[in-house]
Specification:
six-stranded parallel β-sheet, elongated
Length: about 1400
C-alpha cells in the first residue's frame, strides 16, 4: 500500500465511503469513478490504490454476503497479488481472496469456484485467471460490481486485460447489458508502446486505451498538485566512456567460442539423437554463444566467466526452462563447462589478485567493461548515505545474475552493503520461485538487503517507501517503463540515475523525451476528457467462437489453440523421470499434429491416441487456418464429452471430484461396539434361564497346577458357526487351546444368580487387584445399577459331565467376605462327626478344613495367596533357609522381617502360592519363558491369614486367570458375527463365511495378536482394484487410461473406502488396540463408570456402544479392503462382489463386447502366430494384439489406440491373480509376508525383465528414437545379468516403463478376448513370469531392509543426501552403528535405483562388521 499523508487545505466534496486521510485529488478521482468508468492516471506513489479501495468501500453494500455479487481487483503480476490484497483488507471489512496460477486455479471446477464465491467478497487475482473463469463460465461479468485494472496500460494486443474487455465486456455492451461492472483503471503512464514521443502519437494511444477500457482518463492539471504530497526523484545522467574490451582479447575469445560450438555441434551430429531434440540442443548452443558474446562486449571477461559458471553444470540455482533430453542437456552443459575453462585461462589467479582491487586496471584489461566500472563508481558515490536502498534496473536476466555476483564480492568489504537479484522466468532461465522473490522484497523493505539488481519485473507496483536510489543500468524501452522505474524511488531527495554511453545521442534524446512525456500525456488526457468513448472497432469483436448453450462457456478463435493443447496435455504420456528432477525426456508427448496445405488452404489435425477423435480438416484463410481447425476440434471434443459444458477437460473435473473426496472431514472419535448377547438388564425375576457353554482348556506344556473347565452362562444363545468356538491362547510357558461347546439350558433363581455374581466379581477383583482394597466397595454397589450392563455368568465346573449339574456350587458359595464369625461358618464345612480341629486364623478360630483349597489374605504384607493344604512337618520353629544361606526359624524370620511375634508357633504351616497374574494371553509372544520349579510355593503361619474364599481350588483360580482373555476373544467373535449378520440381512444370496475370518479382517496390527488384517487387506485391495478396473473399462469404452485411472482412484482410494465404511458403521466393529486385562469389565459388576447405549445397525438389529475409541480413516479403509478379502478368500468372487454391493460399490462381471470404431489388418503390424504361440492363447480378435503392442508414439492413423487402456485393465488383473495365487499357495504365511511377496512379484521392473526374456521388446510398435535407444541399452545391460529371477527388487538398472506395460496390456487383451476369463490370463502370462518369487527366494528391497535394520538395532540413519553428477543422480546413505560410520554413494540415471544400490552397499558393510564382531 502506498504511503499517504493527510490532506491539507482546500475544500472538497465529502463522500460517505472516503477515508479520513484521503487527499483532495483522490476525492476528486473517487467522485468521478463513482459516476462513470474511469482510468486514474497519476504518478507512482500518488495513492491510486487508495482510490480503488474507496471505490470498493462505496460498493461494499452490494458485495457483502449473502449478496451474489463480487468485486474483482486485477493485478498484472503475482508479486502484486498479496500486496494489493493486504491493502484492501486493511481499509475495508470485506472478505478478500487471493488467486494466482500457482495455487492450482487452472484445475478448479465449477464447485470449487462456487465455494470461492461463497467465501469471498473481493477477488484479487492475475488477469489470466479471470479471463479463463469467464471463458469457462465459472464467473460472469454480471456477477462483478466493480472491476479494477491495476497497471491498466497493459491492456494492449492479446494481453488478458484486452481479451477480458473485448471478448466479454464489449460484446455485452453491444447488447446494451445494463449489469456490466464499473470499470476502474490505474496507471502511471497511459502510454506503453515504443515509438516517437509526439503529442499526436500519445493522443492516439490514450484514445485507444480509453475506447478499449470504455473509460475516461482522470488526471491532475499539473504535476505541482501531486508535488505537495509525494516526493519526486531527481533525474541525473551518468555518462560512461566507450572503452571496449581489447580487440585482440575479444577476437581470441570469440574464436574459442566458435571452435567450441563447432565441436559440440559435431557431438550432436554423432549422437544419433532425434532431429527435433538435436535442433533444440543446437538452438540452445546458439543462444548460449550469443549470451556469452553479449557478456564479453557489454560486461567484460570476468562477468562473462561468471555467466558460463552460472550456466554450466556447476551452477547453483539457475537452469534453462526449455528442457532437453538427457544427451542434449549433457552436450549443452559440457559446452558451458568448456567455455568456463577457456575463459578462466584469461583471468589472473592466485591469492594476490581479486576483481575490483584496481577498477581502472580491470577496465583496461577488459575484465570489467567501462559501463560496469561506472556503475560501481556511481554506487560508491552514495557510500555516505545512511541506509541505502537501491534498485538497479537491467534488461537481461543474465546481467542481473552476474552483476549481483560482482557486487556481492566487492561491496561488502567496501560498504557493508548486501546485494541480491530478482528476475522473471519468461526469458528461458528458471531462477527463483515466487516465495524467494517475495522474501527478497521483504528483506529489502526491512533493510536486510541494500541493493536489488532487477529486470522489469520490479517496475510495476513494488511499494518500498524507503527506496532512495534507482539506477537504470540499461535504458528503458518504453515511456511507461521509464516512468514506472523512476517511481520506485519513494524517499524524499531520492535520485534517479540514468546511465548513458558517451556520444550515444539517440539514447540521450530518448531519455530527454521520456522526462518530458509526463506533461504531454497529462495535457492530451485533459484535452479530450469531455469526449465520450467511441465504439470499439476491432476484429476481435467479430472473431469466430463456439459457445455452449447450457452454460454460456465460450472458446474463441484465438483461445482455441491453447484450449486444445491444454486438453492434450492432460492425456496419458510416456516420459523418463530421472530421480527428483524431470529432465524433459519424453518418449512421446500427446499433442495434435497439424498439417497445412497452403495451396488448397486445407488444415488437418490428427490427435494423440488417447483422444477419441477422428482427424479434423477445415478450409479457410491461411493466416487463421490452424486456429479454425483447433476451434472445430474443441467443438468436436465438447460434443463427444471430452470437454465438459464448461469447456474444461473431463479429467480436470474428475480430479477435482477426487480431491474434494479426499478433503471431506473425518472424525476419528468412533463408537466402540459390544455384543448384545453379553448384555442384560437388571431384573428381580424369580427365575432366569441361561444358555450354558462348557469352556474347556488344554495346554501343550507341563505345569504343576491343574486346569479346570468353566461354565459360561448367557441369556441369549450364541449364533456362531456350528455352535462351536475354538481358538488358542499364548501364555508364557506355551499354548493353551480353548473350546466352548453348547451344553444346554440352566434355570437359576434370583438368589442363585446373586450368589453367582458375588462369586465371579469377588474372584476377578482379587485376581486383578491382588488386594482387598476395592472388593468391599464393589460388592456393596454391584446390585445398584438399574440400566443395561454386561451380564453373563462364569462359574467353576465340578466335573466333565455335560449337564446343568456340573456347576461347582460349593465353590460358588465360597465367598467369606466381608468377614463374618468363621466359627459359625465352620458348622457347615465339616460332616457332623468330623475330627477336624480348630486352627487360629487371623480373625477367628476356624476348622482346619477351611484352609484346604482356600484363598487367604495376609495383612502384614498385603498379599493374597492360594492355599492348597497344610504341611505335616513344618511349624513356626522349623528352619527357613534364607537367600544368604543362613538358616533361621520361621518365628525368627517374622520377628526380624515384619516385627511379628508368632503366638502359635507349633501350628502347622499352610502351603500357599501367590495369586496368579491376569495377562493378555491374546498377544503374540516371540519367546517362551522357562518353567520354574523352585520356590513356587510359600509356607504361611495360619494366625497371619484371613480367609476370603473357601473352598476354592488352586486349579479353579488358575483357570479363571485366563478368562478375561478368553471372553475378550468371544466378545469380538460375537462382534464379528453381528457384522456378518448385518451384511446377510441385506444380501439376496446365501453367503457363508466363517466368523473367525471376519474377526481377522477387523483386527488391526496394533492389537499385537497372532493374526491381523494385513493379508486379507492385500488380497481385498487387489480384487477391489481389479473389479473397479474391469467395470470402468467396460462402461467407458471411449475414455482414455488417465481418465479411467482417476475414476478408479475415486472408487478405491482410502477416503472413498473410509466414507463407505463409516456409512455402514464399520468403525464400531474394528478391534484397534491391544487387549488390556485391567480395562476388562467384570460381568455383573455394576460399580464401574461404563455406560452401554443401544445403537441400531438396522431396523431389526442392534448392538451396544460402550464408549468411544480412536480409529484413523486409513484404518477404516484397510478394514473395508480386508473384509472384501475375507469374503473373497472363503466365498469366492460372488461373495466379495456381494459385500462390495452392500457397501455401494456396484460391479457387474457380465461379459460386455469391446466396441472399437475402426478396423485394421493385424497381420500387417504384428506376428500373430508367433505371439499366440508365445502366449499359448489363440485370439478371436487379433486386433487386440495390435492394440496391446502399440506405444503412444506410434502415430499411424489406422491404429487410433495405444496399449494404455489394455494396460490399465491388465495391471489390475495381474495384481489380483498373482496376489490370489500367493495367498492360496502359502496359507500359513505371516500377514506381512503376503505383502512382501506381492511387492516383489507385481512391479514394472519385474514385468520388464520378463518381457525382455521373452523377446517381446522386438514386437512393440513405437516411433521414438529415444525410446529405441533406451530399450537397446536396457537389453544390452540385461544380457549381462543373471536370468535366474524376475524379482524387480534385485534389479540394478532402470527399465523403460513400456517393457513392463506390454506384459500388462497383453494380459488385458487376453482377458477381453477370453470373455473376462481370469484363468486364461494366468495360464498365458504365468509362464512368462516364471520363476515366481517364493518365501524362500524372497529378497527384501535393500532400502526397506536397511530401514528396518536401523529401527531394530537403534542405528542412526542420517538424512539421505541427493545430488546430481552430469546426467546421473547420486545418492549418499550414511548409518552410524555402535560408533562406526557406514557410508556409501551410488549413482544411477534413476533416483530409486541409486538409492537401492547405496542401501545395498551399506547393508553389506553393516553385515560384514557384525560377522567380524
Amino acid at each position: 500500500m502506498e504511503e499517504v499523508e493527510l490532506a491539507t487545505g482546500g475544500s472538497q466534496e465529502i463522500l460517505p465511503d472516503a477515508l479520513p486521510f484521503a487527499r483532495s485529488y483522490q476525492m476528486e478521482a473517487l467522485a468521478k469513478a463513482i459516476k462513470q468508468n474511469t482510468i486514474v492516471y497519476l504518478e507512482t506513489g500518488s495513492g491510486k490504490t487508495l482510490i480503488a479501495i474507496m471505490l470498493l468501500r462505496s460498493y461494499a453494500y452490494h458485495l457483502r454476503k449473502p449478496s451474489p455479487y463480487i468485486g474483482v481487483f486485477l493485478v498484472p503480476t503475482v508479486v502484486l497479488v498479496a500486496q494489493q490484497a493486504e491493502a484492501v483488507a486493511m481499509h475495508t471489512d470485506l472478505k478478500v481472496g487471493k488467486h494466482w496460477g500457482d495455487i492450482g486455479v487452472d484445475y478448479w471446477d465449477d464447485r470449487i469456484w462456487k465455494q470461492q464465491l461463497d467465501n469471498y467478497e473481493v477477488f484479487v487475482m492475475t488477469p489470466t485467471i479471470l479471463l479463463n473463469a469467464l471463458r469457462h463460465r465459472f464467473l460472469t461479468l454480471d456477477m462483478i460490481k466493480v472491476l479494477i485494472f491495476d497497471e491498466c496500460h497493459n491492456a494492449r494486443g492479446r494481453h488478458p486485460y484486452a481479451c477480458i474487455m473485448m471478448e466479454f465486456y464489449h460484446r455485452q455492451l453491444q447488447y446494451n447489458n445494463s449489469k456490466l461492472p464499473r470499470i476502474f483503471g490505474m496507471t502511471a503512464s497511459p502510454v506503453k508502446a515504443k515509438g516517437s514521443s509526439w503529442a499526436s502519437t500519445y493522443r492516439n494511444q490514450i484514445l485507444e486505451l480509453e475506447n478499449l477500457m470504455n473509460s475516461k482518463v482522470y488526471t491532475t492539471v499539473d504535476e505541482n498538485v501531486l508535488a505537495e504530497y509525494i516526493p519526486f526523484s531527481t533525474p541525473k545522467l551518468k555518462f560512461y566512456d566507450s572503452w571496449d574490451i581489447p580487440y585482440a582479447l575479444f577476437e581470441c575469445l570469440s574464436n574459442d567460442l566458435k571452435n567450441l560450438k563447432e565441436k559440440h555441434e559435431s557431438a550432436l551430429r554423432e549422437s544419433n539423437m532425434e532431429k527435433s531434440a538435436a535442433d533444440s540442443a543446437r538452438g540452445r548452443l546458439s543462444k548460449l554463444v550469443s549470451t556469452f558474446l553479449f557478456c564479453l562486449t557489454e560486461l567484460g571477461v570476468w562477468l562473462a566467466l561468471k555467466a558460463t559458471e552460472s550456466l554450466s553444470c556447476y551452477g547453483t540455482h539457475i537452469c534453462l526452462l526449455e528442457k532437453l533430453d538427457v544427451h542434449g542437456e549433457s552436450i549443452v552443459r559440457d559446452f558451458s563447462l568448456d567455455v568456463f575453462k577457456v575463459f578462466s585461462a584469461y583471468i589472473p589467479s592466485g591469492q594476490g589478485w581479486s576483481i575490483g582491487d584496481d577498477l581502472n586496471a580491470d577496465k583496461v584489461a577488459g575484465y570489467l567493461s567501462s559501463k560496469v566500472v561506472s556503475l560501481i563508481e556511481s554506487l560508491l558515490d552514495y557510500r555516505d548515505l545512511k541506509d541505502l536502498r537501491c534498485i538497479v534496473f537491467v534488461e537481461r536476466v543474465i546481467t542481473a545474475v552476474v552483476l549481483q555476483i560482482l557486487l556481492s564480492e566487492l561491496l561488502p568489504k567496501l560498504t557493508g552493503w548486501k546485494t541480491k537479484f530478482i528476475a522473471g522466468n519468461h526469458s528461458g532461465l528458471q531462477l527463483q520461485s515466487r516465495n524467494i522473490q517475495n522474501e527478497i522484497v521483504e528483506e529489502f523493505r526491512k533493510g536486510m538487503v541494500n541493493i536489488i539488481v532487477a529486470t522489469s519485473i520490479l517496475e510495476e507496483g513494488l511499494d518500498v517507501q524507503s527506496c532512495n536510489l534507482v539506477i537504470r543500468f540499461d535504458p528503458s524501452t518504453t515511456v511507461c517503463s521509464f516512468i514506472q522505474s523512476r517511481g520506485r524511488a519513494r524517499m524524499p531527495n531520492s535520485d534517479f540515475l540514468l546511465m548513458v554511453r558517451s556520444g550515444d545521442n539517440a539514447t540521450l534524446n530518448q531519455m530527454k523525451n521520456y522526462l518530458a512525456s509526463g506533461d504531454i500525456m497529462r495535457e492530451e488526457s485533459l484535452r479530450h476528457s469531455h469526449l465520450p468513448c467511441e465504439p470499439l472497432d476491432s476484429e476481435l469483436l467479430n472473431e469466430a467462437f463456439y459457445c455452449v448453450k447450457s452454460t454460456g462457456a465460450v472458446v474463441t478463435l484465438s483461445s482455441s489453440v491453447a484450449l486444445l493443447h491444454f486438453y492434450c496435455s492432460r492425456l496419458p504420456s510416456d516420459g523418463f523421470v530421472q530421480g527428483f528432477v524431470f529432465h524433459g525426456l519424453k518418449y512421446f508427448k500427446p499433442s495434435p499434429l497439424c498439417e497445412i496445405d497452403k495451396n488448397s488452404q486445407l488444415c488437418t489435425l490428427t490427435f494423440p491416441k488417447g483422444c477419441n477423435l477422428q482427424p479434423v480438416s477445415v478450409k479457410g484463410n491461411v493466416k487463421t487456418l490452424k486456429q479454425l481447425a483447433c476451434l472445430e476440434a474443441c467443438k468436436q471434443l465438447h460434443l463427444s464429452g471430452a470437454l465438459t459444458d464448461n469447456l474444461v477437460p473431463d479429467i480436470v473435473v474428475e480430479e477435482a471430484d477426487a480431491q474434494e473426496l479426499g478433503c471431506e472431514p473425518y472424525v476419528d472419535d468412533q463408537a466402540n461396539y459390544f455384543p448384545p448377547e453379553l448384555v442384560g438388564h437388571h431384573e428381580n425375576n424369580s427365575t432366569r434361564l441361561f444358555h450354558c457353554y462348557l469352556i474347556e482348556m488344554q495346554r501343550n506344556f507341563e505345569y504343576n497346577v491343574p486346569l479346570h473347565h468353566i461354565v459360561l452362562g448367557v441369556m441369549t444363545k450364541l449364533e456362531i458357526d456350528d455352535e462351536k468356538i475354538a481358538f488358542d491362547l499364548e501364555v508364557d510357558k506355551g499354548n493353551l487351546s480353548v473350546w466352548a461347546n453348547y451344553v444346554g439350558v440352566m434355570s437359576l433363581s434370583s438368589e442363585e444368580v446373586l450368589l453367582c455374581q458375588t462369586f465371579q466379581i469377588s474372584l476377578f477383583r482379587v485376581l486383578f487387584d491382588h488386594n482387598l482394597t476395592k472388593l468391599a466397595e464393589v460388592l456393596s454397589a454391584f446390585n445398584s445399577r438399574k440400566d443395561y450392563s454386561i451380564d453373563y455368568l462364569l462359574l467353576p465346573c465340578s466335573g466333565p459331565s455335560q449337564n446343568p449339574l456340573i456347576v461347582d456350587w460349593k465353590c460358588v458359595s465360597s465367598v467369606i467376605f466381608p468377614y463374618e464369625k468363621l466359627r459359625d461358618h465352620n458348622t457347615s464345612c465339616c460332616p457332623p462327626k468330623s475330627y477336624g480341629r480348630l486352627v487360629h486364623a487371623k480373625n477367628d478360630l476356624v476348622c482346619s478344613c477351611m484352609f484346604e483349597n482356600s484363598l487367604v489374605y495376609t495383612p502384614h504384607n498385603g498379599y493374597i495367596y492360594c492355599i492348597s493344604g497344610t504341611s505335616d512337618n513344618l511349624d513356626g520353629n522349623s528352619l527357613l533357609r534364607e537367600r544368604s544361606g543362613e538358616a533361621i526359624t520361621y518365628k525368627q524370620y517374622y520377628k526380624s522381617r515384619h516385627g511379628i511375634d508368632l503366638c502359635f508357633e507349633r501350628e502347622s504351616l499352610l502351603i500357599g502360592k501367590h495369586i496368579f497374574p491376569v495377562q493378555n494371553c491374546l498377544k503374540r509372544r516371540r519367546q517362551l519363558k522357562e518353567i520354574g520349579q523352585s520356590n513356587t510355593f510359600v509356607e504361611l503361619p495360619p494366625e497371619l491369614c484371613v480367609i476370603i474364599m473357601s473352598p476354592i481350588s488352586i486349579g479353579t483360580i488358575y483357570s479363571f486367570s485366563f478368562l478375561p482373555s478368553i471372553m475378550h476373544r468371544i466378545e469380538f467373535l460375537l462382534i464379528a458375527n453381528n457384522l456378518k449378520k448385518m451384511h446377510l440381512d441385506h444380501c439376496m444370496q446365501s453367503v457363508i463365511i466363517p466368523t473367525a475370518k471376519v474377526l481377522e479382517a477387523i483386527t488391526t496390527k496394533k492389537c499385537q495378536e497372532k493374526f491381523h488384517l494385513e493379508s486379507l487387506e492385500t488380497l481385498g485391495d487387489s480384487f477391489l482394484k481389479y473389479a473397479a478396473s474391469q467395470q470402468l473399462f467396460k462402461t467407458y469404452q471411449n475414455q482414455h487410461e488417465g481418465l479411467l485411472s482417476v475414476k478408479k482412484d475415486k472408487i478405491v482410494c482410502n477416503a472413498a473406502l473410509c466414507k463407505r465404511g463409516c456409512d455402514h458403521k464399520l468403525p464400531g466393529f474394528i478391534q484397534n488396540e491391544p487387549f488390556d486385562p485391567q480395562m476388562w469389565i467384570i460381568p455383573g459388576d455394576r460399580s464401574g463408570q461404563y455406560k452401554l447405549d443401544e445403537e441400531y445397525l438396522s431396523a431389526t438389529r442392534k448392538v451396544f456402544n460402550r464408549g468411544r475409541k480412536k480409529v484413523k480413516s486409513k484404518t477404516v479403509a484397510d478394514v473395508v479392503e480386508a473384509l472384501i478379502g475375507a469374503f473373497l478368500s472363503t466365498g469366492g468372487e460372488k461373495a466379495a462382489l456381494s459385500f462390495m454391493d452392500w457397501l455401494g460399490i456396484k460391479v457387474d462381471f457380465a461379459n460386455v463386447p469391446y466396441v472399437r470404431q475402426f478396423s485394421i489388418e493385424p497381420k500387417r503390424h504384428v506376428n500373430i502366430k508367433y505371439l499366440e504361440s508365445l502366449l499359448n492363447f489363440s485370439f478371436l480378435d487379433s486386433s487386440l494384439l495390435v492394440e496391446a503392442l502399440t506405444h503412444g508414439s506410434y502415430m499411424l492413423p489406422e491404429i487410433p489406440r495405444s496399449y494404455q487402456r489394455l494396460e490399465f485393465l491388465g495391471d489390475s488383473v495381474l495384481d489380483y491373480l498373482i496376489t490370489m495365487h500367493l495367498y492360496q499357495k502359502y496359507p500359513g504365511m505371516s500377514p506381512g509376508l503376503l505383502t512382501d511377496l506381492r511387492s516383489a512379484s507385481v512391479n514394472n521392473d519385474c514385468f520388464a525383465r520378463s518381457a525382455v526374456k521373452a523377446g517381446l521388446h522386438k514386437h512393440i510398435l513405437y516411433s521414438s528414437q529415444e525410446l529405441h535407444k533406451r530399450i537397446a541399452e536396457t537389453v544390452h545391460n540385461f544380457e549381462q545379468l543373471s536370468l535366474a529371477t524376475t524379482s524387480g527388487c534385485e534389479s540394478e538398472t532402470a527399465f523403460p516403463k513400456v517393457l513392463g506395460d506390454v506384459i500388462e496390456s497383453l494380459a488385458g487383451a487376453i482377458l477381453v478376448d477370453s470373455g473376462y476369463n481370469t484363468d486364461a490370463v494366468f495360464q498365458s502370462i504365468r509362464p512368462l513370469l516364471e520363476p515366481l518369487v517364493t518365501p524362500e527366494t524372497l529378497k527384501l528391497n535393500p532400502i526397506r531392509e536397511l530401514i528396518e535394520l536401523c529401527q531394530r538395532e537403534h542405528f542412526v540413519m542420517e538424512k539421505t543426501v541427493v545430488s546430481r553428477e552430469r546426467n546421473l543422480i547420486a545418492i549418499t546413505i550414511e548409518v552410524q552403528a555402535n560408533g562406526v560410520v557406514h557410508k556409501h554413494t551410488s549413482t544411477a540415471p534413476v533416483k530409486k535405483t541409486a538409492q537401492k544400490l547405496a542401501s545395498k552397499a551399506v547393508l553389506k558393510s553393516l553385515k560384514e562388521r557384525e560377522s567380524l564382531s
